[in-house]
Amino acid sequence: MVNLSFLGGAGTVTGSKYLLEHGGRRVLVDCGLFQGFKALRLKNWAPLPVAPHAIDTVVLTHAHLDHSGYLPLLVKNGFRGRIFCTESTERLCEILLPDSGHLQERDAEFANRHGFSKHKPALPLYTQDDAERALRQFAPLAFDEAHGVPGGATLRYRRMGHILGAASVEIGWADRTFVFSGDMGRYGDALMVDPVSVEQADYLVVESTYGDRRHSRERAEDALAEIVGKTVHRGGTVVVPAFAVGRAQSVLYYLEKLKSEGRLHRALPIFLDSPMAIDASDIFCRYPQDHRLTRDQCRALASGAHYIQSSEESKALTANPMPKVIISASGMATGGRVLHHLKHYAPDARNAILFTGFQAGGTRGASMVAGASSVKIHGEYVLVRAEVRNLEMLSAHADCDEILRWLKAFNQPPRRTFVTHGEPAASDALRHRIEEELHWNVAVPEHGESFELG
Q: Which of 29, 44, 321, 394 has fewest C-beta within 10 Å?
């Protein structure tokens, strides 16, 4: 028997951790942070039900923190095995994980200095040094090749188009095939490649972020042109909380396209205020096989914005009253420099706050998109009078129809399919569609649930 346990990513879009166990060996697929509601974030501080030193191998699907962000703590607490991933995932983790540790240290210091934490003193979950140590255990692998991993399993990565380096994972173990979709990208995306089909699996774990909805068919550039043009016309600034890896590059691409077509004024200043997103944009251009852009388009992507590196430059940008576009992390407004911009710009009705994808429950982004009149930032409530929009067609996640399209490429039904990485309504809606349209055996696991797979 092989045992599959859902230690995260069940009933929520965050904290992905799937544990395979066979013959006394353990493989952990993804190792993500919980984000959003406080009850979820507290799970990051709780010990795992399996000792980190007892895990043989970690296999990452991609670099986003809800899939990789727990790794520094896993290593700190005793994990000594290798962390397998694709090459571009390793490059992105080299900037994402240390930045995560740095932000946690900075947030703890800020809370202690201003006295708004309930903990005395506030402590970071892990540090930048912890993240640097975890990176030493990374072992990048090529796409579309079978690789042996400890414990007698084999591993194959296929491109999924979600972000640079994102992959589905196929693990062959104990004469069975286990496939994990990871986060699934879009078909026909302007930047990223289409998700690569999988033909066979005995057991399948599939994401369901948008399992209950379809993306708008409105073109992303049309929506951007409308809201940016309208905001600038009334003398306002557009603040774009964007995921530093993936969405920041997409927004830059569309804004540059609109300028080149004359739909936005060439002189409109665009600022990328995220050192991490700046580094990610550079990595983007180094891996052309993972996306659709030409070398010239990559160069235009890199030159289309003013890069803000230092915190002093960021503060000066906030104080500058000229109409402009500011792209800054994080994408759900959970931390980072974008919080300072929101504190300044959200109270003014001339401005716009433009989100670019899924907003997990319990995040500031979800509250603002739902129409909150104020949000709490750095211990104080900030009024939200700016126009708030969420352009979900910019999301890097497949919608329900695209997920079904990927599933229909299997040449026979898996013995069992597990629907994860979604809010409860989304996961259950996708379960229902798979049962009704494909007639597969489907389950929606709960957090901590385990299954014996024969």
A: 321
Other CB atoms within 10 Å distance of the CB of residue 160: 28
Q: Is 7 helix (H, G, I), strand (E, B) or coil?
A: strand
Which amino acid appears at position 347 of this protein?
P
- Region of 23 on the Ramachandran plot (φ > 0 left; ψ -120 to 50 alpha; else beta): left
Beta strand 17-22 pairing with 25-29: antiparallel
Phi-psi region of 144 (alpha: psi -120 to 50; beta: other; left: phi over 0): left
Radius of gyration of the chain (CA): 21
How far, CA to CA in Å, does 391 sit from each of 65, 135, 222, 354, 395? 22, 34, 11, 7, 8
Task: Please state the separation of Cα 296 from the chain's center in Å.
Answer: 27
- DSSP codes, 234-263: TT--EEEE--TTTHHHHHHHHHHHHHHTTS
In this prediction, residue 113 carries a pLDDT of 79
Strands 153-159 and 167-173: antiparallel
Domains and CATH numbers, the chain: 2-213+396-453 (3.60.15.10), 220-394 (3.40.50.10890)
7 contacts 19 by C-beta, under 8 angstroms: yes
For residue 330, cis peptide bond before it (omega within 30 degrees of 0): yes
pLDDT at residue 301 tops 80:
no
Determine what percent of the chain is predicted with pLDDT higher than 70: 98
Rounded distance between C-alpha atoms, residue 179 and residue 226, angstroms: 41
Cβ(414)–Cβ(201) below 8 Å? yes
Query: Which one, of 346, 335, 229, 276, lies nearest residue 99 by Cα?
Result: 276
Cα angle 81-87-93, degrees, rounded to a multiple of 5: 70
Min mean pLDDT across 49-53, 328-332, 343-347, 416-420 is at 328-332
Q: Classify 110 as helix, strand or coil.
A: helix
Question: Per-residue pLDDT averaged across 295-301, rounded?
Answer: 79
Query: Using a CB cutoff of 8 Å and minimum separation of 24, what contacts does 291-295 make?
Result: 291/164, 291/191, 291/192, 291/193, 292/189, 292/190, 292/191, 292/192, 292/193, 293/191, 293/253
pTM listed for this prediction: 0.91
pLDDT at 304: 77
User: What is the per-residue pLDDT across 218-275, written as a single tens digit (0 to 9) for each?
Assistant: 999 999 999 999 999 999 999 999 877 778 888 999 999 999 999 999 999 999 998 7
Q: Tally DSSP H helices, then E strands, for the chain.
A: 14, 22
Which of 74-78, 106-110, 189-193 has the least mean pLDDT? 106-110
Length of the chain: 454
